[in-house]
């Protein structure tokens, strides 16, 4: 079932999101975690979520996050900053789950 969701999300991104163009950060997030699009509720909220994750990574010195770095920002994990330092991120989805 998850494979179908991934393929549908990939098809939507490839087709331009059925008429709606997403920012590059939102497209990467859609490929990494397609279930977040439904969680966000609207394309505008999804763009905002992707932008917030990018800004959070930017505060760590990461200007163009990789999919692995976005994953760490979402669910937690260690990322390397441009200076080479390792930073442990709790993950925004993990924080919400504990509330």
Account of the 3D structure:
The protein is mainly alpha-helical. It has 6 helices and 2 strands. It has a two-stranded antiparallel sheet. Strand 1 and strand 2 form a beta hairpin. The longest helix has 17 residues.
Summarize the structure.
The protein is mostly helical and 99 residues long.
> Widest sheet: strand order?
1-2
In which range does the helix fraction lie?
A: 55-70%
Enumerate how many helices there are, as a single number: 6
Q: Structural class of the secondary structure composition? A: mainly alpha
- How many separate domains? 1
Quaternary structure: single chain
Average pLDDT: 74
Q: State which percent range the strand residues make up.
A: 5-15%
Head-to-tail CA distance between termini: 28 Å
Low-confidence stretches: none
**Secondary-structure element pattern, one letter each:** HHHHHEEH
- State the total count of DSSP E strands: 2
**Major beta sheet summary:** 2 strands, antiparallel
């Amino acid at each position: 079932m998850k494979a179908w969701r991934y393929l549908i999300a990939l098809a939507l991104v490839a087709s331009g999101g059925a008429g709606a163009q997403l920012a590059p950060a939102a497209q990467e997030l859609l490929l990494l975690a397609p279930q977040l699009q439904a969680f966000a509720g609207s394309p505008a909220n999804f763009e905002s979520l992707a932008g917030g994750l990018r800004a959070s990574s930017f505060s760590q010195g990461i200007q163009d996050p990789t999919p692995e770095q976005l994953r760490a920002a979402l669910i937690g994990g260690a990322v390397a900053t441009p200076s080479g330092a390792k930073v442990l991120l709790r993950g925004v989805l993990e924080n919400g789950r504990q509330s």
